[in-house]
Each structure stands twice: as structure tokens, then as C-alpha cells.
């Protein structure tokens, strides 16, 4: 079983010449326990992606701390050379930019496997997990659709044997018909491996289907958090109510009526 990820009063501030400092992340705290699926939702520009990058050590903190187990992520260095930092893996929004266009798929996944070459699943097994044929290993990224590339990105992230998988708007660039399937795939792959999943999205309807708990973020702050069903059934914050009121209701058969939620 993996280790707990602890986010404590995290702040990320950007200084822009001639303007007041921008508090992109403003005092966010939460924990992500092993085997949990946490949804982070909010409108574009609310600070979700900045927070994700701060968790991975890709953006320096202005305050607070990110701790993985008992080790601060900041002490692992931004270069990613510390093997412990590789136990936190991110799947980015754009699968077209996150894969090397000049290298075969199998080689890119194999690079990640070298972190734990004796215990990691084989390239073929990783492709099985993300429901792609093993023959995909011989191909190049341009030969695959957006949904297939995102599955490849998931396989590559899981090849390191991560304890934490972070999806930073991983379905935003996909066709609507693929979004739910890829989200469900990320949940299954993460939980079957024993990892936890932080799934970041502005698509609340899909987050509801995969997350155990939800954080609602607005203007750099978490304004509400709780069990997924509780948030949907009885939202407390006006911002949460507004977000939920903007999405269509879905009945028990997965159909979307022509009446939005109240």
C-alpha cells in the first residue's frame, strides 16, 4: 500500500510586472489516502492545474507544504531526479503534446518502466491495462487517435509504479463520447494497482461517477469538500450550488432530460 499525500496550506503566488500579485492557489489543504479517488472541480482559471503542478514539484510553493509520506516534495527537487518524486505521476490534458512524436510507443513506456524494471508490468501488460492491443508498442503517436494517445499516456504514467496518479484535466481534449470511458479507465487502473487518484476536471458530471470525495475550488481556494453524494445531494456553498445548477441532470438510465438541476 502506498503513502499518504498531505497538502497543508499550500500557496502559489505569481508576480506580474505592473500588477498586484496573483494568488493562483491560496491556502489549500487536504489529504489523499492510499486507494482513494478524489475529485477536484472548479471553473477554468480557478487554480486547479497550478495546484496539480505544485503537488508534483513542477511549480515552487509560495507557502505551505506538500508531503508525500513523511518527506516534503519540495526537498526532492524540481528536476524529478529523486526516485520518490516519480511515485507521483501526472497525466496531462493534451495527449498530443505529452508524447514524444519521434519515438515508438513501446520505447516511451519502457523508459518509465526502468524506474522499477523487475517489478513493473511489462509493456504488453500495461497496454492490456489501458485496453490497447500489444501491437501498439510498435507504433508512433501520430498513428493513434486522441483517446488512444491518452490511454498511452496513462500506461506510461503507471509504468513507474506510482503511489499517486494525478489527472490534470485528462479528458478535456477528448470527444464527449470518450470522456467518461477514459475517466473510468483511470479510476480502474489506479485502484487495481493500489494507487490513489486525484482527478482534476471542470466536468462535474463525470467527476461524480468516479470520485469518492470532491473538493470544490474557486479563485484559488477550496470552498467546499465532502463525500461525493453529500456534495451533490446537499451542496452548502453558493458557488457549489451554482456549478451544480449549470449541469444537466442524468437519470438512472444515463439519459439527460431537457431540464437542468435546480
Automatic annotation (TrEMBL):
Belongs to the ABC transporter superfamily. Pfam families: ABC_tran, oligo_HPY. Residues 5-244 form the ABC transporter domain. Keywords: ATP-binding, Nucleotide-binding, Transport. The lineage of its organism: Bacteria, Bacillati, Actinomycetota, Actinomycetes, Micrococcales. SUPFAM superfamilies: P-loop containing nucleoside triphosphate hydrolases. The keyword Ion transport does not apply. This is ABC transporter domain-containing protein. It comes from the Bacteria. Gene3D superfamilies: P-loop containing nucleotide triphosphate hydrolases (3.40.50.300). It comes from Gryllotalpicola daejeonensis.
Amino acid at each position: 500500500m502506498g503513502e499518504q499525500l498531505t497538502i497543508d496550506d499550500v500557496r502559489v503566488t505569481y508576480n506580474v510586472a505592473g500588477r498586484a500579485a496573483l494568488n493562483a492557489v491560496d491556502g489549500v489543504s487536504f489529504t489523499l489516502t492510499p486507494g482513494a479517488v478524489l475529485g477536484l472541480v472548479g471553473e477554468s482559471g480557478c487554480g486547479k492545474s497550478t495546484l496539480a503542478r505544485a503537488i508534483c514539484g513542477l511549480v515552487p510553493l509560495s507557502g505551505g507544504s506538500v508531503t508525500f509520506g513523511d518527506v516534503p516534495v519540495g526537498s526532492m527537487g524540481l528536476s524529478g531526479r529523486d526516485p520518490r518524486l516519480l511515485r507521483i505521476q501526472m497525466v496531462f490534458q493534451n495527449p498530443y503534446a505529452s508524447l514524444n512524436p519521434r519515438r515508438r510507443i513501446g520505447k516511451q513506456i519502457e523508459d518509465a518502466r526502468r524506474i522499477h524494471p523487475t517489478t513493473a508490468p511489462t509493456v504488453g501488460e500495461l497496454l492490456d491495462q489501458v485496453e490497447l492491443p500489444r501491437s501498439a508498442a510498435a507504433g508512433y503517436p501520430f498513428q493513434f487517435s486522441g483517446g488512444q494517445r491518452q490511454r498511452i499516456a496513462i500506461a506510461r504514467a503507471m509504468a513507474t509504479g506510482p503511489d499517486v496518479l494525478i489527472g490534470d484535466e485528462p479528458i478535456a481534449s477528448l470527444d464527449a463520447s470518450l470522456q467518461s470511458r477514459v475517466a473510468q479507465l483511470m479510476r480502474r487502473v489506479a485502484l487495481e494497482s493500489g494507487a490513489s487518484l486525484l482527478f482534476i476536471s471542470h466536468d462535474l458530471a463525470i467527476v461524480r461517477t468516479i470520485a469518492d470525495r470532491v473538493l470544490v475550488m474557486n479563485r484559488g481556494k477550496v470552498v467546499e469538500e465532502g463525500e461525493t453524494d453529500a456534495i451533490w445531494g446537499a451542496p452548502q456553498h453558493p458557488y457549489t450550488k451554482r456549478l451544480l445548477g449549470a449541469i444537466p441532470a442524468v437519470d438512472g438510465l444515463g439519459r439527460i432530460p431537457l431540464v437542468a438541476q435546480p
